[in-house]
Amino acid sequence: MHLHGTSRINEYGHLEIGGCDTVELARRFGTPLYVMDEDLIRKRMREFRSAMAETGLPHQVAYASKAFCTLAMCRLVAEEGLHLDVVSDGELHTALQAGFPPEHIHFHGNNKTPFELEMALEAGIGLFIVDNFVELSMLNDLAGKKGINARVLLRVTPGIEAYTHEYIQTGQEDSKFGFDLASGQAIEAAKLARDAAHLSLEGFHCHIGSQIFETEGFRLVVDKMAAFIRECRETLAVETRILNLGGGFGIRYQKEDRPLPIRQYVQAIADAVKTAFAGEPVIPEVWLEPGRSIVGEAGTTLYTVGTMKEVPGVRKYVAVDGGMTDNLRPALYQAKYEALLANRAAEEPTEVVSIAGKCCESGDMLIWDLPLPSPRTGDILAVSCTGAYNYSMANNYNRIRRPAVVFVRDGQAKVVVRRETLDDLIHNDCLSPEPVQVKREEEEPVG
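Structure for Diaminopimelate decarboxylase, as requested:
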């Protein structure tokens, strides 16, 4: 397993993160346990900020909170001076409760409800990324009723298909996200936004996918968006000042992955923008929205090894006390991970095993064909790079409790999300609910 950030193998042969022995973390806080390397999170944020500053372009960096969103994480983002991207009332509520400045929040999403839009308007968030014609009209109406002029970007689907898993491609024409560029939807949306009485069109947003390991896709999308921005200026007299290129920067999950350094992604984007807008009256402010590339490698999940089963001549299954309830990505995306035994981290592998979760699903497999020292019941398995979309997608299938989350730094661990209790699982259940009349008395029966 590749060691990221502050991870190392200590003098006891144990995996250590943030100066904390992971075997002791497992003993103290139980397993499964999400361990987040706080120094590495802060380092990644600073790398994005400094790389953008070096380009000389006007810019902004917003953390995509869908990757990992808790009160503590929102506060950390604020401390590091980044803006915040949210996609639901839950993420917005979390940010506001953490004291995040609402004027630095952007609201994404392809199906924002009236409640969510009103909540965001009342909170005074900085900007909406409008995804479709229904939302465009609804936001204009709601903003008008509140006497507010809402700042907006239009999400454009540019027709760029990044080389990544089909479920996390977002820039292709056939997508649930955004106004399609090729069909003329995007230019029509720009016209409507221009004419909307209670909206201020400030620019455009696009996103071509996730886990991207090259820069060509970003160069292509900058060219397409530059041409579209010129078309808006020439045919609609629409002047905009922001080009939000989203995120999607890849990280290393396994040895085959070859992500580029953050500065290389950013410099390639900056060079593309400078070239595409050369001679234009205004070079737009370039916004980025990294999520996975900030928190992904900072996360490690600890499990306790339980039962084992050997199928002669086929494979050996090693079961752990978690699975698809705390890491849905292998079942959803066929995502691949690396791991080691945290309590025997210095030992060489002696066999190949497959790591099974404890859910009642044959597809609940975390890692296939993993080289390990011969596992024993009670060993602590550490799976790396689980900081993004693991806690975010955690669920209670089989009524399994969601894990705790700890931030580790300088030998100290802070519980930022407590482990669910059995009573938490039934907190919202109603054993003897009072019946509620749902017939609308004022309506006549049909027919």
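Residues 216-236 form the longest helix (21 residues).
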